[in-house]
Amino acid sequence: MFNINGYILNGIVINQKRILAIVSGRVQGVMYRDFAARTAKKLSVVGEVENQKDGTVKVVAQGEEKNLAVFQKKLWRGSLFSKVSNVSVKDLQSGEEYPDFRIIYYGQNS
After folding, report:
1. Residues 2-25 pLDDT 10s
2. 102: annotated active-site residue
3. Counting beta carbons within 10 angstroms of the beta carbon of residue 60, is it exposed (0 to 12), middle (13 to 18) or buried (19 or more)?
4. In a domain, 100, yes or no
5. Residue 77: inside a domain, yes or no?
6. Does the active-site annotation cover 18?
7. What pTM, to 2 d.p., does this model score?
8. In sequence order, what are the beta bridge partners of 88?
9. Which residue in 3, 10, 15, 51 is the catalytic one?
10. Is 103 within the bounds of a domain?
């Protein structure tokens, strides 16, 4: 059983949360999206990451609250060649259900 607020696993309620993060700095052309996707998968976080025309990176992520907290901290670190200057995060209500974490490329329909 699953919804955006949580799911039940062996009788234990697992709290789910969804966030939107806008990451700014030197975050395009430096493998930042790949870093975010690999990090999310390691933390069992689902969602998507996409470069924006204004030079930022948009991240929508959903997972257990504790895993999302770790993921948010790692978004500040970024890839080896990135230099993150800001990560703006806000909570989101339920929406599209993601089966995994994906990178959206320019011109790709989400």
Report:
1. 444 555 455 554 678 999 999 999
2. no
3. buried
4. no
5. yes
6. no
7. 0.84
8. 22
9. 51
10. no
